[in-house]
């Protein structure tokens, strides 16, 4: 699909530590993966598609979009962190147990994180510091609400689908109704105020509170558990993020 990124207006990406102005040149592609029907029909199996790569580069000040990316960063008082390549560890010094088949000491096993196996082709996106901070907030909320490491995988996968782990503010004319935040929760549907649903801790806690009310969610496939909470127009799209979500949770836990 050809996308004219010049049509997009600036938007606000929020997190619990700061408000960061993020060029919707980046958000357009990242959010488009979450909202477009192609997210479920043609998942990315080796990384973001070409349009998303270009948008990420622009948003983070790399390659030809360097000036545009720096301008967006300066508006918030800092330059956005460069995106990592998907093959790199999500954080320096952290490794998984995939090479030996055993998890690192004190980390949940693959069987605990993905007890039912993955469904369909899996997608991955590179993660920057803002996304990692938001993933940590989700994992922390999973621990506090008692949904455990499996619940954390459901939460991280859901946020990967909904916002690519970016804490998105209102996108104006391009918003999906009034959806905002890591989980694209709608204030008009009772999830909370705009300030609440764009607070990572609140948003994650609200998601996990709703998940705990899903009877037998632990025994459901990830996409079914997530969809019961989110009521998405693309109910099977969550499944494609289960593997990356498990990797993130195993490393952060």
Automatic annotation (TrEMBL):
<keyword id="KW-0732">Signal</keyword>
<feature type="region of interest" description="Disordered">
    <location>
        <begin position="64"/>
        <end position="113"/>
    </location>
</feature>
<protein>
    <recommendedName>
        <fullName>Peptidase M23</fullName>
    </recommendedName>
</protein>
<feature type="signal peptide">
    <location>
        <begin position="1"/>
        <end position="41"/>
    </location>
</feature>
<feature type="compositionally biased region" description="Low complexity">
    <location>
        <begin position="64"/>
        <end position="81"/>
    </location>
</feature>
